[in-house]
Amino acid sequence: SEGGGALYHPGTVRECVFLNNRATAGGGAICAANSTIVGCRFLTNTCQKGTIYVNRQDHSALVKDCLFDGNVASWGGGAVLVDRGSLAASDCRFVGNLAQNGAACYRGTYSRCTFSDTKTASSMFGIVSQGTFDGCLFTRNSVPGISPQGAAIAYKCDLVGCTISNCTVNGNIS
User: What is the pLDDT of residues 65-109, one digit of tens each?
Assistant: First the structure.
């Protein structure tokens, strides 16, 4: 699929498992448009940009109590990529996702989420890249390379309005 390996612009999605879906562009599992996604598991999905992908300015996604484990994006946001529009995630776990830029997430707002056991595919742009993070835990993440940048959070946050508050950053290696 070119977008949304499993679903394209769903409304509300609850308690579903997205396993081994594939998209040649954005949204290995879901290309979201004004979507609410609750209690889902996203496991080993592949794409170019984001297992959940928000790609239009007038689109948004609300993601709550979800698990993202082992998802891979060739460009960015192994679990989540917000190209345009907005995404707010709360109480989610991001484990072992992989991408060239923002291995777990690329843009968005995250509250009380856990980012763990993730390695980036390059020395740039960390586990999460750009966004707002409140009350999140970043643990056991790593970035390889000659001059690695930000095993937990990277990408010139001072230039793009990244906000980090009340977070715990522990045991990351860069």
Answer: 999 999 999 988 899 999 889 999 999 999 999 887 778 888 899
Q: What share of the chain is helix, strand, coil (3-state, %, to 5)?
A: 0, 50, 50
Structure pTM? 0.91
Side chain identity at residue 141, one-letter code: N
Residue of 58, 57, 12 whose CA lies nearest to 35: 12
Q: How far apart are CA 89 and CA 109, in angstroms?
A: 6
- The DSSP bridge pattern shows strands 67-69 and 163-165 to be unpaired
- Please answer whether residues 53 and 74 qualify as being in contact, where contact means their C-beta atoms are separated by less than 8 angstroms: no
The first and second tokens of residue 28, run together, are 């290995």
